[in-house]
Write a structure and sequence with these properties.
Helices cover 26% and strands 27% of the residues. The chain is α/β, with parallel strands linked by helices and 394 residues long. The chain folds into 2 domains: 1-102 and 193-394, 2-enoyl-CoA Hydratase, Chain A, domain 1 (Alpha-Beta Complex), CATH 3.90.226.10; 103-192, Roll (Pdz3 Domain). Strands 1, 2, 14, 15, 16, 19 and 20 form a 7-stranded mixed sheet that branches. Strands 4, 5, 6, 7, 8 and 9 form a 6-stranded antiparallel sheet that branches. It has a 6-stranded mixed sheet with strand order 11-12-13-17-18-21, with helices on both faces. Helix 7 (248-256) packs parallel to helix 8 (301-311). The radius of gyration is 24 Å and the shape is globular.
């Protein structure tokens, strides 16, 4: 499969308020600035009273203050009964930002965990790990002198391996057939993670998959279209299946590649105001026939794009009903690197359809069964290709 990338920021999301915007996961989010306030300790007296009792009488290890603070925040947010308002610890926040940027400082190797807890490396050709001498199948046993154990959370392992570009990390590995562990010094570099991949599926049909809406997505989409056109494509399948969302600006930019003008979405805010997001600039794919693939994993920012396509009758949706995640989250970065995602608004399609809790209904409904997956069949993609090749009806 051919793929291209540009430069990047995760999800998860829209960001925009007093500072910059960035989105992730099942929603679109906005990174925001907040004013720290001093908590009224009197109102938390029962909390501290309870923990004094725990510290004095609990039979076992008492978590440290940071763990207690994070647990208290997470527990209190659950009382809001909103799955999209949540707290993220610093390390998770770093991973989220990497997803949304589309790049991170790394060694240029796939990191896999086996069923028995071992961590294996697969270097990418020509990248730092490969150049340093690390080989496929090497078992990672230590990072900068810290031992990697089967009990260590995989996210912690990744956090140790990743870091700032240009910094050197010492990796100790165990290699089959070699008695003693080997230590390599690897200088991290920027590793780009594309959000778009593509290939020519038939003589005239180009296939483009968007896995997330990050800072690079619109540029990568344009690269994909140019490359596929050069190979003879004049109609396209755009795959949004299992795309959980990303940045709102990226979703608007991507939708604008398919539409001449008009509204992409409306944002209905908690204070009763409304913001209109319109098509921006001249799109690269405003005339050729397009079909969009969607499923229950199509959420948030990807539903923004699919809803705009459907309402403007620019193309059709094939697959199954989308998730129905149409709320906006502000992302507040806190002083210790953690963050709070807060639901602040809902969005509506150009025809003012409410998607939250409802989802989008495809124009052609086709299920993808477990048997299809086992036998490596994709009837949704097959139907989309057939639809375009039959000339329906664009």
């Amino acid at each position: 499969m051919r793929q291209k990338t540009a430069l990047r920021l995760a999800l998860y999301t829209v960001l925009c308020l007093v500072v910059v915007g960035s989105t992730f996961g099942l929603g679109y989010t906005v990174r925001a600035v907040y004013s720290p306030v001093t908590a009224d300790e009197a109102s938390l007296s029962v909390f501290w009273e309870a923990w004094r009792v725990i510290e004095q009488y609990f039979y076992g290890t008492v978590p440290d203050q940071t763990a207690r603070t994070y647990g208290a925040i997470q527990g209190s947010l659950e009382t809001l009964e909103d799955p999209y308002t949540y707290f993220i610890e610093p390390q998770q926040r770093d991973r989220e930002q990497e997803e949304l940027r589309g790049s991170f400082g790394g060694i240029g190797a796939w990191v896999d965990r086996t069923a028995d807890g071992r961590v294996l490396l697969r270097p990418m050709a020509g990248r730092p790990a490969d150049q340093a001498g690390i080989q496929e199948g090497d078992e990672l046993v230590a990072v900068d002198g810290t031992f990697v154990t089967p009990e260590m959370p995989f996210a912690d392992v990744l956090a140790m391996v990743r870091g700032q570009s240009g910094q050197v990390v010492r990796l100790t590995v165990r290699r089959s057939g070699v008695d003693e562990p080997i230590t390599y010094e690897v200088e991290r570099e920027e590793i780009v993670t594309p959000s778009v991949v593509w290939e020519l599926k038939s003589e005239r049909v180009g296939y483009i998959q968007l896995s997330i809406f990050n800072e690079r997505s619109s540029d990568e989409l344009q690269d994909a279209v140019r490359d596929l056109r050069s190979q003879g494509a004049d109609r396209y399948v755009i795959d949004l299946r299992n795309n959980g969302g990303g940045l709102l600006p990226a979703a608007i930019d991507v939708a604008s590649q398919f539409l001449d003008d008009g509204v992409v979405m409306y944002e209905s805010r908690t204070d009763g105001t409304e913001k209109v997001y319109r098509v921006e600039g001249k799109g690269i794919l405003t005339e050729e026939p397009v079909v969009f693939l969607v499923n229950s994993g199509t959420a948030s920012a990807s539903e923004i794009v699919a809803g705009a396509i459907q309402d403007h009758e620019r193309g059709i949706l094939i697959g199954t009903e989308t998730l129905g995640k149409a709320s906006v989250q502000l992302i507040f970065d806190l002083s210790d690197g953690s963050s709070v995602h807060v639901t602040n608004a809902h969005w509506l399609t150009p025809a003012r359809r409410e998607i939250n809790g409802v989802g989008l209904t495809p124009d052609i409904a086709i299920e993808l069964t477990d048997q299809d997956r086992e036998e490596q069949r994709d009837p949704q993609l097959a139907r989309a290709i057939a639809y375009l090749e039959e000339g329906n009806p664009q």
